[in-house]
Design brief:
By secondary structure, the protein is mainly alpha-helical. It has a single domain, classed as Orthogonal Bundle (MetI-like fold), CATH 1.10.3720.10. 76% of the residues lie in helices and 0% in strands. α7 packs antiparallel against α10, α10 runs antiparallel to α13 and α12 runs antiparallel to α13. The longest helix has 33 residues.
Length: 289
């Protein structure tokens, strides 16, 4: 009876997993072994040819490197922004919840709408370039330069996510016993020393969560790139997601796109696993196990 009751209560999750995860995964595996273009009634089995083509494609390798560029730019940027917000809000005497909600609001905004606002702001006739031309006589092609395009997309996503991450970090800060700081102050520890030796190590569970979540976001960047740069300039922002979209819906090579998606999923899983191991080693060195 207890087993039946347990299966009954877990059945919604099991059904959800089967319909929205296992069946699409099986479909994707089958599709990756074909050359179907999503339009022709004929489906040809090509085996692992799509995977071989993906591994040998310079465009796919380039998109992998772009994704890792976003990883190494976005994650530190989001971590610094969210930690700064959490520390500032945690130091306030009152209305902490109100300020946290204010910083959280960008997370609720649509990525499409945010991208359109940023695109309008940074366009040739946008407010920023108009101001720079009128005051300093310069005009910057923000989204036409590979370096600035990467930075702008990364900063926009970091701005969007930092309020959400700050909620997690603020919860971690609130759980740190204030007596520890008082004892450190008595021993002559400066504010920076207390932050480095107490706050960061004690904040490990929240930092672990935020970093892993941010890494996951960096591997799934699509909307902002699609709206702002389309993967340009010169494929400088062409992420895995953009390449999968282009192959599936522009080139109509759904089998090839599915193979790329599966390879990207495996690489993402392995990358997150490595980062988690590094974070766990750091946590163990600070007394977390």
């Amino acid at each position: 009876m207890n087993n039946k009751l347990g299966w009954f209560f877990t059945s919604p999750y099991i059904i959800f997993t089967v319909i929205f995860f296992l069946l699409p995964l099986a479909w994707s595996l089958w599709l990756a072994l074909t050359d179907w273009d999503m339009m022709s009634p004929n489906v040809n089995f090509v085996g692992i040819e799509n995977f071989i083509d993906a591994f040998n494609s310079p465009a796919i390798r380039a998109s992998f490197f772009v994704t890792y560029k976003f990883l190494f730019i976005f994650v530190p940027m989001a971590l610094i922004l969210s930690l700064t917000i959490a520390l500032l809000v945690n130091s306030l005497p009152k209305f902490k919840g109100l300020y946290l909600v204010g910083f959280f609001l960008p997370y609720l905004s649509s990525g499409v709408v945010t991208s359109l606002v940023v695109n309008g702001l940074l366009s040739y006739n946008g407010a920023l370039n108009t101001f720079l031309r009128d005051r300093f006589g310069v005009n910057i092609d923000w989204l036409g330069n590979p370096t600035t395009a990467l930075l702008i997309v990364s900063f926009m996503i970091a701005w969007k996510m930092s309020g959400y991450y700050a909620l997690i970090l603020n919860s971690g800060l609130s759980s740190i016993n204030k007596e520890i700081y008082e004892a450190a102050a008595i021993d002559g520890a400066s504010g920076f020393t207390a932050f480095r030796k107490i706050t960061i190590p004690m904040l490990y569970p929240a930092l672990y969560t935020v970093i892993v979540m941010a890494v996951g976001v960096s591997f799934g960047i699509f909307t902002e790139v699609y709206q702002l740069t389309g993967g340009g300039p010169n494929y400088a922002t062409n992420t895995w997601q953009m390449e999968i979209y282009n192959q599936a819906f522009v080139n109509l090579e759904s089998g090839y796109a599915s193979a790329i998606a599966l390879v990207a999923a495996v690489v993402t899983f392995l990358s997150i696993g490595v980062i988690k191991k590094v974070l766990e080693k750091w946590g163990e060195s600070n007394g977390w196990s």
